[in-house]
């Protein structure tokens, strides 16, 4: 309630016109201003000093089972507290925290869906801002008979499916993308993979004459004949000859899941890699037309045999990891803006991986970079992270088909790693001091950490060190295998680099995240 409403309510409460003295006003107005301008509890918590990422712990609790290969979930803002969950075959199920998973589907479009192959099926769902009134929802799926990736509107009140836009995708059954989300501008965004196969055989990522390998942006609130939707006039390629006007971003491989940060409108994308790198991209609000690099680049590495045009500018990912972490397909998540855990991780982006189930936490560091940490494990084979109307997290997992609520807590690390870097030319030495900050001795240890792209270990000391891609496992030497509580061990390595000599950003000691010191 604003200040004018407070004063109006004060007049109405007396039942008569009041003559307020300057003295009364001097007391009342400042108090009203403090009330009107006071931040919400979530905003106040987020403004406080952030909890270091290694101090966060993510856990899950299963709340429903019996789903058949769930692919996505969304929460209608209609006061019902429901979740809508898509299943690969073409059904949408309903979950309510009080009554559980409803047996009968909300809708069934299996007659229209091609679910052949592992990656085809009903893939995405989005609800418009006016869903409570319109009862319209939007679905992304691969359509019969030929697997075309398709965007359709489903009218619940009429049980009617209306196809809006489709893209041919017949040759391969993988890389369909499938995320749908309404942006803060009210437009609908849809991700489509590069057409499948491997190595971008159609060179789709860098082409502007196809919707493959793109995120598209359209206005579904109206129609512009002969289209069943309108192309926003400020889309970046509206006036580019030969380009599809619906394109918002290009140079993507398989952007399975993306999301908008409700705090600042920025776009976070999890783009599944070819085999060397999984990546997360972070795009400022309203910034269309960017080239995210595929297939010239996979992550930060130039892709062998990729499609590289001279003079192109590419937007680099903000986070990458290699399959040597145990991962295989990044599952892009959301920035946490809920209330329940706002004091812990408000403003932190959470993602996971289909194979490793690692929970990744990312947060801008205020200096143009990003803090990062591994903060727990998801259930096996998570396919999607969803958000309730109140901003709390749920996940669905592919097999055996469950719904899980995500919780966060603070657990102080039992280790700390301090770093000392000496740089020169194309080389650097890194000295690490590992301190046991827990109450129990560590008997035998492995310190796992990533190196920045282009760094290669040449030699090491006080450890047995193995590098695979950018992933390092440093194991104790015989003389320093035990670290008593409060004690430290030192180790280090000499590395060559191609320009980035930054120290490792995160560390895991025997599988537990360590605080990062200097």
Produce the secondary structure layout.
Blueprint: H1 3-14, H2 22-37, H3 41-47, E1 56-64, E2 70-74, E3 83-87, E4 91-96, E5 100-101, E6 107-108, E7 122-126, H4 131-134, E8 136-143, E9 148-155, E10 160-167, E11 180-182, E12 188-192, E13 214-218, E14 247-250, E15 257-260, E16 267-271, E17 278-283, E18 297-298, E19 301-302, E20 319-321, E21 330-335, H5 342-345, E22 349-353, E23 358-364, E24 370-377, E25 382-387, E26 393-397, E27 402-410, E28 415-424, E29 427-436, E30 442-443, E31 446-450, E32 456-461, E33 463-468, E34 471-476, E35 482-483, E36 488-496, E37 508-509, E38 512-513, E39 515-516
Parallel strand pairs: 28-39
Antiparallel strand pairs: 1-27, 2-3, 3-4, 4-5, 4-6, 7-8, 8-9, 9-10, 11-12, 12-13, 13-14, 15-16, 16-17, 17-20, 18-19, 21-22, 22-23, 23-24, 25-26, 26-27, 28-29, 29-36, 30-35, 31-34, 31-37, 32-36, 33-34, 37-38
């Amino acid at each position: 309630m604003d200040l004018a409403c407070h004063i109006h309510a004060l007049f109405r409460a007396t039942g008569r016109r009041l003559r307020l003295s300057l003295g009364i006003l001097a007391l009342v107005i400042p108090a009203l201003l403090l009330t009107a301008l006071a931040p919400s509890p979530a905003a106040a918590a987020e403004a406080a000093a952030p909890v270091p990422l290694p101090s966060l712990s993510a856990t899950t609790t299963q709340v429903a089972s019996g789903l058949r290969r769930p692919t996505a979930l969304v929460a209608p803002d209609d006061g019902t507290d429901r979740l809508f969950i898509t299943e690969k075959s073409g059904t949408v199920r309903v979950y309510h925290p009080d009554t559980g998973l409803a047996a009968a589907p909300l809708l069934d479009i299996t007659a229209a869906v091609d679910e052949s192959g592992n990656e085809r099926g009903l893939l995405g769902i989005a609800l418009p801002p006016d869903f409570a009134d319109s009862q319209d929802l939007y679905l992304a799926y691969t359509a019969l008979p030929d697997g075309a990736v398709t965007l359709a509107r489903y009218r619940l009140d009429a049980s009617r499916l209306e196809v809006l836009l489709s893209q041919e995708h017949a040759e391969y059954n993988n890389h369909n993308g499938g995320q749908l989300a309404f942006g803060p501008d009210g437009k609908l965004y849809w991700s489509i993979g590069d057409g499948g196969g491997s190595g971008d055989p159609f060179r789709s990522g860098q082409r502007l004459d196809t919707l493959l390998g793109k995120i598209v942006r359209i206005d579904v609130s109206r129609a512009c004949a002969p289209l069943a939707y309108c192309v926003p006039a400020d889309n970046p390629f509206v006036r580019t000859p030969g380009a599809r006007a619906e394109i918002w971003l290009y140079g993507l491989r398989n952007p399975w899941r993306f999301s908008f940060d409700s705090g600042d409108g920025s776009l976070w994308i999890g783009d599944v890699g070819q085999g060397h790198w999984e990546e997360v991209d972070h795009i400022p609000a309203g910034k269309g037309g960017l080239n995210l690099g595929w297939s010239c680049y996979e992550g930060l590495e130039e892709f062998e045999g990729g499609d590289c045009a001279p003079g192109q500018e590419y937007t680099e990912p903000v986070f990458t990891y290699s399959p040597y972490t145990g991962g295989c397909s990044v599952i892009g998540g959301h920035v946490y803006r809920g209330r329940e855990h706002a004091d812990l991780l408000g403003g932190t982006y959470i993602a996971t991986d289909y194979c490793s189930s690692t929970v990744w936490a990312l947060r801008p560091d205020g200096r143009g970079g990003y803090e990062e940490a591994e903060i727990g494990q998801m259930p096996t084979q998570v396919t999607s992270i969803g958000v309730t109307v109140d901003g709390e997290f749920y996940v669905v997992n592919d097999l055996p088909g469950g719904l899980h609520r995500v919780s966060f807590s603070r657990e102080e690390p039992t280790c700390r790693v301090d770093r000392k870097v000496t740089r020169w030319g194309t080389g650097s030495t890194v000295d690490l001091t590992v301190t046991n900050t827990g109450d129990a001795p560590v008997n035998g240890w492995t310190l796992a950490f990533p190196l920045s792209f282009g760094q290669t270990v040449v030699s090491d000391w006080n450890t047995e060190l193995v590098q695979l891609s950018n992933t390092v496992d440093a194991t104790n030497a015989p003389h320093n295998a035990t670290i008593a509580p409060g004690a430290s061990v030192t180790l280090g390595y000499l590395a060559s680099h191609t320009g980035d000599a930054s120290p490792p950003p995160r560390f895991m000691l025997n599988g537990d995240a360590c605080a990062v010191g200097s």
